[in-house]
Amino acid sequence: MDSSVLAQVIAAVKEAGRLLTDPNTVAEIRAKSVTDYVTNVDVAVQTQLKAKLAALTPDVQFMGEEQDNAGLDPHGAIWILDPVDGTTNLIHNFHFSAISLALYQGGQVVFGVVYHPYSDSCFTATRGGGSFLNGQPISVSNAAQLSQCLASVGTVPGRRDLGETAFRQLWTLYNACQDVRRMGCASLDLSFVACGRQDLYVEPALKPWDYAAGLLLVEEAGGKVTQPDGSPVTLLEGCGVLASNGHVHQQALEALQL
Ligand code: IPD
Ligand code: CA
Ligand code: CA
Prior knowledge:
14 strands
């Protein structure tokens, strides 16, 4: 896709970020399930960006967390949006939520942007073009042993049936690494692996909009992303994710299979 169009897409994502940072932003909270919430902000960000993307790229289909995504043609291009990744953080005014947008085309993610509006941090990547934070190139860490690593985990809040797996992964990495974090925003977890602030991240189950953009950020920053059992991630259907700087990927896979 033309770089001037991508620049307009990034600008639209940043503009939508203002919907998250307004302190009076969350007016309505609805439980999709006992542990999965949607607010007026999630809906407003998706509505605004969907309209903007339709105007900028009318031929590209749209997948978003807050809509029914049945009937998409996998052979065509698809925007994949998480309007608010980290909704529970948003509800608690925790300031660790992001907008995550990816472009899927030809069976792969070719563009990704993850925007953290509270710090005005904009992570971007294009396939073959590298990863950037606010326009500066980023790369994964050099850690070569799990004992040198800071890891993060996701606790699959919407899939309590997988909670035990998540906490087993946490316990494994806590024992093998320097320490473990749980920040509540998968796209930023992946962005932080991409820029080397942490060395790996694992979560047993996610949706495409949680990881599509972050996956490209990690890969283009020199890292590796697979499922926690080592198999390739699926892009239009959700799956578990293990992302790392690449150097410790095999060690992490072996540790997590125990
Ligand atoms: C959630 C966040 C969280 C992760 C969950 C996701 P949401 O996304 O990324 O960190 O643990 O698995 O569902 O629901 O806030 O968009
Ligand atoms: Ca999400
Ligand atoms: Ca979301």
